[in-house]
Write a structure and sequence with these properties.
Blueprint lengths: L1 H16 L6 H8 L3 H12 L4 H12 L1 H6 L13 H6 L3 H9 L8 H29 L9 H18 L3 H16 L5 H15 L1 H4 L4
Helix pairs in contact: 1-3, 1-8, 2-8, 3-4, 7-9, 10-11
Amino acid sequence: MMGYLVLGFAFGLLLVSFNYDWYLAPLMSIFIYAGALQFVAINFFNVKAGFVDIAIASLFVNLRQSFYGLSLLKRFRKTGKLKPYLIFGLTDETYALLTTIKDDEQLKKRWYYFFLTALNQIYWFVGATAGAIIGSNIEFNTAGLEFSLTALFVVLCIEQYKNLKNSIPFLVGTVASIFALIFIPSDKMLIVAIFISLLLLFFFRKRLDLND
């Protein structure tokens, strides 16, 4: 809640700072609900990018979720009619919580997954709407606000490290990211870094014991 309210608030402020109507923030938070992509979408609007360009860029930005989404297929297998929403609402932060917090056996898992996902979207929606409304009425200096997304990812990474207690996956991610940053064009850096990380993790799979 604390992360998404603040991050959503930053998105709302940033959106209206470019003279877009405040109601776009809640609409995007309901129908798109992709934190990183929503920040990127603001730049799409500014450069008047075409639908094809937006679709391709969106695919590459969110393609990472298809990789870690595969690890949740077993968990979501018996979620019934809730499954489509769980897939739609899967974000980096929700995934981090699902893989960090141990399931409470006393709870019905499918409803636990649903409410965790739904509450995260509500927090984002409330934060984004509040930020857009307040930003429309009070002038803010929004310089550096986009870094709030990076800051949240850093916190999630730290929590994952504490839970996993294995430094190899983080070293693999660091090496792959540095390689992609130096040798790969910026528009393809993310997907290349993910592929390299996956290859290295599969190579070291026996030593990592990441099957769970």
